Amino acid sequence: MARRSVLVGGLALATSGSASRSLARAGSAQPEVWTFDRLAAIGGHAVTVEGQPQLTDSPFGRAVRFDGVDDALFIDNHPLAGAEHFTFEALFRPDGGAHEQRWFHLQETPPATGAEQWPGTRFLFEIRVYDRQWCLDAFTKGPGYNQVLIFPDKLHPVGEWAHVAQTYDGATYRSFVNGVLQGEAPLAFRPQGAGATSVGCRFNRVNHFNGAVRAAAFSRRALAPSAFSLLK
Predict the structure, then answer these.
(1) Residue 31 has what DSSP assignment?
(2) Residues 6 or more apart whose Cβ sits within 8 Å of residue 10
(3) What is the domain count for the chain?
(4) Is beta strand 61-67 parallel, antiparallel or unpaired with respect to 210-219?
(5) What is the pLDDT of residues 63-116, one digit of tens each?
(6) I need a surface site. Which of 144, 196, 207, 231 has the fewest CB within 10 A?
(7) pTM score, two decimals?
(8) Domain contains 207
């Protein structure tokens, strides 16, 4: 599958030149890449569409545009289930709007019994919007851990494409925007179970996203920024 790099805002952002499909599965050293150039079968997984998300042009090819009201995609897969270490990347364009937007959510399926003790195991990419700027909010929660990485003093302009990432190397949880460290914290992470993903809102259909998403990548190891799959 051909890859190309596109220079945006001084950054070379890598993207797939073909239809969305999984590049690798669990156990592989290669990332699994989802390309949002369609409204069905993202990364080879079934998709449920809510609202009216639209395909739109981007410097990298097609992307999915969300209206910030009721648009969302629900994907029948948790791509980091079972991962002990990870890198979770996304290439997106926030377009402003509501202050709190929870736009990429990996959710473990609650147990059939004992759900009242289930901690709500998940990964999230969120943003906080301040007029025409935004900051990243990366978050993960599971049994025995609950960690947010948000730094409102590190702001970025709306209306521009950006690369975001969160990583875990076995000891430290980190977040990045355009390859630049935003912050870090120690984390006693435990692997998450199988589940599903929402894009464009939180899994419980709140805090919808106003903007576009082009791609996401999921690695089962902590990558340095120089090795990020979508940032070359």
Answers:
(1) P
(2) none
(3) 1
(4) antiparallel
(5) 999 999 999 999 999 999 999 999 999 999 999 999 999 999 999 998 876 666
(6) 144
(7) 0.90
(8) yes
